Amino acid sequence: MSQLQTNMDWMLKDLAESVPQTRHVIVLSADGLRMAQYGAQTDTADRLAAACAGLQSLAGAVASELPNGDGRMRLVVIEMDGGFFYLMAAGAGAYLAVLADEGVDAGLMGQRMRDLVARIGEHLSSPPRSDRQTA
């Protein structure tokens, strides 16, 4: 495990423990690769990260329809039976995702996510991968 991932893991734990009803916290790259996680098994975190890549792409497509927008997604919140899903831009090419139970305080979650992104946003940036890195 890299030093960066170790540092992010404890920060994600802090977010999860400061907001009751938080289930999973994941940091992912824009192409859907899990960078760090808390509260989820690796397979679950990988599936959520992959789904987030599609979701942020769809949100960006919708955002590009706004006349004064820049086409970038900042925050997506999905309410579903049993809970909420949050996806927030967290640096260049990186995102913070949270899955929470139904009783979560949505305002507190948004505030804690923004605080975390502000504190460690530069560490959450994921540079684009080159062809050599994918081989």
UniProtKB/TrEMBL annotation:
Protein name: Dynein regulation protein LC7
Record field: transmembrane: 83-104
SUPFAM superfamilies to which the protein is assigned, alphabetical: Roadblock/LC7 domain
Domain of life of the organism encoding this protein: Bacteria
Roadblock/LAMTOR2 domain segment(s): 9-100
InterPro entries from the UniProt entry: Mycobact_SerProt_Inhib_Rv3364c, Roadblock/LAMTOR2_dom
Organism: Streptomyces subrutilus
Keyword annotations from UniProtKB, A to Z: Membrane, Transmembrane, Transmembrane helix
Keyword Transmembrane: yes
